[in-house]
What we know:
The protein is 84% helix and 0% strand. It is an all-alpha fold and 224 residues long. It has one domain (30-217). The longest helix has 54 residues, at 164-217. The model has no long low-confidence stretch (mean pLDDT 82).
Amino acid sequence: MLESSSLTLAAANLTGINIVWEFLEKGGVFMIPLGITSIAGMMAILYKLLSLSNSRVIPAALVREVGQFPQRIVADKAEPILKEFEKGASTLARLSAVVVKHRGKPRAEITHAVESAAREETFHLHAGIAVLDTIITIAPLLGLLGTASGLVRIFQGLGDNSDHLAIARGISEALTTTIVGLAIAVPCVVAHGYFIRRIEMLTARLESLLADLASACEKPNPNA
């Protein structure tokens, strides 16, 4: 009974794969660049999911350490935190190291140094977004190119009014490449919007944490 169910499931899976393959095969040569575009999109999305994870940008443990930094300085127990900053394992650690490096200087000087370093870090946070932008534009265009190619075949078939197979193939290619192009672009659009929003949230969080750290590290105002 179990073996029969396994064979039935395997047959169903094989049938599903064959249907998908036949559907993609109808797209013609334009399925090759669309396939490459799809792989590039998946790689870009996976890369951004990893690069924008909390552990790589704002680790929760390091957030607590930054919050306790003033107390650690007073108690002369800041050495472990400073070593964590120097490792630079996350965006917060690297920017915090810049703040600590300018400890004892005026607030404006610390802010300027952090802003300079933050521009480079922001560039890294946006790495890969350009790939998604390109795919969002190219995938539908490739689909439309396949549509145009299919329409050419249709018109050729109508010209001699005899090759109905060429007409059917042209319609199939036109519809298939359009569907695949849109199917590639839509997830990339969703991912692009999510990543942009997450970068904005992470940037705002970094600004808040670094502002507090800069306050703890700035030179005391003798007139205060």
